[in-house]
Amino acid sequence: MGAGRIERLPFAGGKPMAERMLKFVSVAQGQPDKRPAAERSTDFDEIYRSFAVAQAEQQSSRCSQCGVPFCSIHCPLGNNIPDWLKMTAEGRLEEAYALSSATNNFPEICGRICPQDRLCEGNCVIEKGFESVTIGAVERFITDTAFASGWVEPIRPPVERALSIGIVGAGPGGLAAAMQLREQGYQVHVYDRYDRVGGLMVYGIPGFKLEKDIVARRHLYLEESGVKFHLGLGVGDRDEDGQIAFATLRDRHDAVLIATGVYKSRDIGGPGAGLGGIVKALDYLTVSNRLSLGDTVESFENGELNAAGKSVVVIGGGDTAMDCVRTAIRQGAKSVKCLYRRDRANMPGSIREVKNAEEEGVEFVWLAAPEAFRGEGTVSGVRASRMKLGLPDATGRQSVEPVEESSFTLEADLVIKALGFDPEPLPTLWGQPDLAVSRWGTLRVDHETFMTSLPGVFAAGDIVRGASLVVWAIRDGRDAAAQMHRWLKNTAPARAQAAE
Ligand code: FAD
Ligand code: SF4
Ligand code: SF4
Question: Helix (H, G, I), strand (E, B), or coil: what is residue 182?
Answer without folding.
Answer: helix
